[in-house]
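tokens incoming
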């Protein structure tokens, strides 16, 4: 997001910009989701002291925390909640979640409410191939405030932000390799890219709906997006159209909004 200040401040990474960005936003009662890079004790403390709730992904940058959570769920039995997505886009996704507050007093992490493990299994209908992913996480919401179903919904809400914005910006516009780094150039280009995404997504959504209703049972023709002048190839838009976060929260019975951080 565009920020005020000199070029040194603008080049600060996500960890350094987390607090300055949220200082300007009312986050009381909100669920703040973040990738593993932002799973930091200082940031967790900041959120809870501002009366928000954190939902962090846990990976190798917190090796002890990752090992402790993985060990807890190593011999897991039946899942606490299972969600199966409709067979859209040629695949069937099954998500399972396990939650526990057994480590709350043990973990060296502030304001732990519970930890969780999410297992995602995808069956690709055309090829029959199955993929399997496991994600670990930690949240400040205790079980009485967030059921397994609600935690899974918050996790999906985070990835809706990732898929509908950050992933498109990174891959279709190759923002990370942009050479525009000084003055107001980064802010202006960031706004233009997001403006373009905001225009394209509704068009792609309507076109995909038209294909699903009218196309014969054969592979659909890819839709091309023209990249900036430095790369004039055509790429298929890497946009995952999933229900809006508000709909996900309504399905889970949650009223809070979510602010997601990710690349």
């Amino acid at each position: 997001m565009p920020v005020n200040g000199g070029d040194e401040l603008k080049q600060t990474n996500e960890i350094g910009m987390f607090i300055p960005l949220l200082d300007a936003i009312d986050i009381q009662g909100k669920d703040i989701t973040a990738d593993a890079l932002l799973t930091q004790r200082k940031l967790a403390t900041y959120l809870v002291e501002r009366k928000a709730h954190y939902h962090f992904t846990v990976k190798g940058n917190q090796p002890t925390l990752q090992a402790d959570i993985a060990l807890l769920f190593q011999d897991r039995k039946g899942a606490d909640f299972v969600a199966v997505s409709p067979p859209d886009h040629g695949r069937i996704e099954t998500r399972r979640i396990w939650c526990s507050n057994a480590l709350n007093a043990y973990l060296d992490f502030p304001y732990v409410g519970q930890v969780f493990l999410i297992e995602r299994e995808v069956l690709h209908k055309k090829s029959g191939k199955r993929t399997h992913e496991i994600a670990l996480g930690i949240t400040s919401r205790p079980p009485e405030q967030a059921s397994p179903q609600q935690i899974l919904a918050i996790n999906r809400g985070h990835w809706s932000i990732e898929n509908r914005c950050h992933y498109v910006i990174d891959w279709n516009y190759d923002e990370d390799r942009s050479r525009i780094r000084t003055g107001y150039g980064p802010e202006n280009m960031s706004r233009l890219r997001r403006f373009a995404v905001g225009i394209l997504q509704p068009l792609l959504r309507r076109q995909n709906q038209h294909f699903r209703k009218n196309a014969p049972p054969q592979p659909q023709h890819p839709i091309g997006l023209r990249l900036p002048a430095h790369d004039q190839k055509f790429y298929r838009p890497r946009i995952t159209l999933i229900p809006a976060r508000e709909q996900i929260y309504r399905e889970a019975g949650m009223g809070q909004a979510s602010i997601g951080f990710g690349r």
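note: Residues 185-214 form the longest helix (30 residues).
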